[in-house]
Amino acid sequence: MTYSPFSQPQPSSQGHEAGHGHVHGHLHGQSSSSSGSNANGGLEMRQMAASPVGESLSPVSDLSYQASSRQNTMWSDQGSQWEVQQQHPGQHNHQNQQQQQQQHLQYQHHHHHHQQQQQQQQQGLQYQQQGLPYQQGMQPGMQYQQHQQHQHPHQGSQGHQFSFSNHIISPVMGSTGMGMSDMSLIRLPSQEYMEYPPLSSGSSEFLSPRPISVVAAQPEREEKPSSVNLLAQFTAEANMPLSLQSGQLNNPRDFTTAPSRTVYLGNIPSTITYKALLDYVRTGVVEEVKILPEKMCAFVSFVDENDALLFHSDAILKRLNIDGRDIKIGWGKPQPIDPIVRAGISNDGATRNVYIGKLNTNKDLCEKWGADPKEVVITKEKLLEDLSQFGEIESIKLVEDRGIAFVHFTSVFSAIKAVANIGSIDPYYSNKKVFYGKDRCAFITKTQQHNVAQFLGIQPGMEALMENNRELISQTLLQQSAAAAAIATSAGGANNLGNRTVYLGNLPKNVKLEEICNAIRGGLLQNIKLLNDRHVCFVTFIDPTAAAQFYAMSSLHGLTIHNKRCKIGWGKHSGPLPNLIALAVSRGASRNIYLGNINFEEDSKLEEPIFTEDALRSIFEEFGTVEQINFLYEKNCCFINFANISNAILAIDKIKSNPHFKNLKINFGKDRCGNVPRQL
């Protein structure tokens, strides 16, 4: 119900009700004998007076008043009297009615007197300075009206009949001395748009072990807020409940509420396979996936709503792109999990993945794991033929050197049927180990571990401590995505959502890429581009959450290079991370290449040493710009850092064919820009 100034507590005694009934009947010229109907009329009058503004019975918007009637109506609480002056034939004063009215107004006057005393004193001084009469307990408009009434007590009174349909006498208004003529001066609270109170970052249901302690900035200020308030406000907006945000179901800003377990994917390629689609899902156990090729859409249902929310948020933030198509993200209709599936998950840990062991994948080696070498050698085609009778199969992985297979169905229900019946239906599987494996969509990637470690301030190398804590990782990634989305959209607009490129301006003259990278912390880099002639640099991160975190921390604490503070902003939208790079990063790729097992002593004796900075630069810059080369002579290794991760991926693939590097250990190293920010 909308707040109305008329919705105040009313006295409930019978005396008051009867008093209102007599007043009502008296004003209509009715006799006092019809007390029953008058009492009902009094009750009806109070209900209308308490009607919320904006509904069908509004005492402000639905009633019209005439100037002549206003001049002949005056309320006053001075001396605890309620005087209604009307010049109408047949009206009489009743002492009992006046006493009841007096008691009622005393009750109301006591309720409002304390709140209006100070305001009335100020108004009295103003009216005394203007030479106008003033009575305590009356509004300025009524003071002037009373002054005119005393001067012309009978003006405009003849021929006018007081009608209840045109006037509502509210006892709430009696103590304020306010008449209907003053209603236009009121600014009703129900006519204002109330702002929700600012929320702290700790208001989210997904709490970080290290929550931000600052409180959101007040939105009333028009001047540019500080960086501290900006960061807090962004986080607060991200954690704001869905009920406080515009939109209900597909709100891209809401990363904290999942209305369903099912995520809708639109504009997908009509020829996409289940395996290709689920290659993009890495947030939790999938209960079922359906592809509708004719409608170019799919529905991915998770077992847990939090996993669905994480996938939904991640897909929006990173702008999910499949085969060059921007995927539309939404929510499917909420539906409960099938009771059979729920029981299988609770009792047996059922998943879409069916594990089959003791398979004959190699006649020469199968005896090592207890398989019968006389059996037919199993293949993917044989597994597909045998198990497809239980439902649609998404993927099959056969590990030949271990004699095991993992068969992923498109639903948990199909997997439950396969585990329960395959041994009895097909004798070949009667002596095999058949149970549930881990859903491949629920594996925690190194990128996810790294992002959580960055957000929680965990030092590098300690990510394994939370490897099995799926709930912590899921909740932390949700909070990180929510904050990143709020920061990106609030600072750069709605189209900036998912941007991974940060602009650095006001750079020192002749600054080097190495010096800039030494100052960047908080996320793996895809590319860094320096424009020395313009003294600007564009830094593109792998993950948009890392870009948003770096932007926020740099705005909060500042970024200084050579004792010169840099300007921070957003660059041109980077678009989604290319799929090939995303796949390489999930397998440990970075822009840093590690070269190990180097014999620096023997190399130094050569006429043209290879493992020097100049020589290595000339070799590796064939693949792209080299940002830094770092030698660790005591560990017989070195690190080559490229400006672009694509160049590093290409180099590590090609350099192995170089005879100078054939005996070396070559792998990806850690990007130092991904270390924990120094501010934390």
TrEMBL record:
Residues 261-334, 352-449, 500-573, 591-671 form the RRM domain. GO terms for molecular function: mRNA binding. GO terms for cellular component: cytoplasmic stress granule. Residues 1-161 are annotated as: Disordered. One of its GO terms (biological process) is regulation of RNA metabolic process. Residues 1-16, 28-44, 85-106, 116-161 have a biased composition (Low complexity). SUPFAM superfamilies: RNA-binding domain, RBD (SSF54928). Residues 58-84 have a biased composition (Polar residues). Pfam families: RRM_1 (PF00076). InterPro entries: Cwc2/Slt11 (IPR039171), Nucleotide-bd_a/b_plait_sf (IPR012677), RBD_domain_sf (IPR035979), RRM_dom (IPR000504). The keyword Repeat applies. The keyword RNA-binding applies. It comes from the Eukaryota. Keywords: Repeat, RNA-binding. PANTHER family: PRE-MRNA-SPLICING FACTOR RBM22 (PTHR14089), RNA-BINDING PROTEIN MRN1 (PTHR14089:SF8). This is Uncharacterized RNA-binding protein YPL184C. It comes from Kluyveromyces marxianus (strain DMKU3-1042 / BCC 29191 / NBRC 104275) (Yeast).
